[in-house]
Amino acid sequence: MNLLHPLKHYYQVRPRLLVALLLAIVCFFLLPASQPLVQKLLIAWNVMAWLYLFSLWWLMLRTPAPGIARIARAQDESAATVLALLCVTCLVSILAILFELGAVKHLSGGDKIQHIALTAATLVVSWSLLPTAFAMHYAHMFYLHGSKTEKALLFPDKLPLPGYWDFLYFSFTIAVAAQTADVATGNTAVRRIALLQAVLSFIFNLAILGLSINVGAGLLS
């Protein structure tokens, strides 16, 4: 009973993440026992990450600006924890990709293409999930930890109620260009989060470059 209560509460607050996690666990145990552990973990991660990514975008596209504050209040208790776990998991996925790429060198034909496709899908979803999660966190900080005199983010057109598109724009600009473009940070707390995102994005961009070189060399060999 003590275990069911927090699970029920978490499902009410973050149903998308919990459902994606449960489906990933089911997928992991349904995979053949003979399959390498790293490969099973990568497939399960892809199931969870892609489902969670699409569900977040579905939520963002359907939520008007006034509704963001309600979502932020509901998820306030676990916002920082979820962001930290996603960051750590995405970084771990890069390590798993390195192990997987090591195995690719000893494969050929269809097996080699399958391994490369799995690593590429993992890298794409991990890279895409990070700025999406950061966008949710920026929205959370703007609506819950800002004030009339000190906004977490300063938009050039002085939007009273920015929508998720505005936070996605800010977050993906950091992910792609490592800069904040025309949106300014309003306090030190936001600058810390933006710095963390910039560093993680740099690591992922290096990983994408390395994967591209590795795949190119593998296909030519």
TrEMBL record:
The keyword Cell cycle does not apply. Keywords: Membrane, Transmembrane, Transmembrane helix. The chain crosses the membrane at residues 16-34, 41-60, 80-104, 116-143, 193-213. The keyword Transmembrane helix applies. This is DUF1345 domain-containing protein. It comes from Rouxiella aceris. The lineage of its organism: Bacteria, Pseudomonadati, Pseudomonadota, Gammaproteobacteria, Enterobacterales.
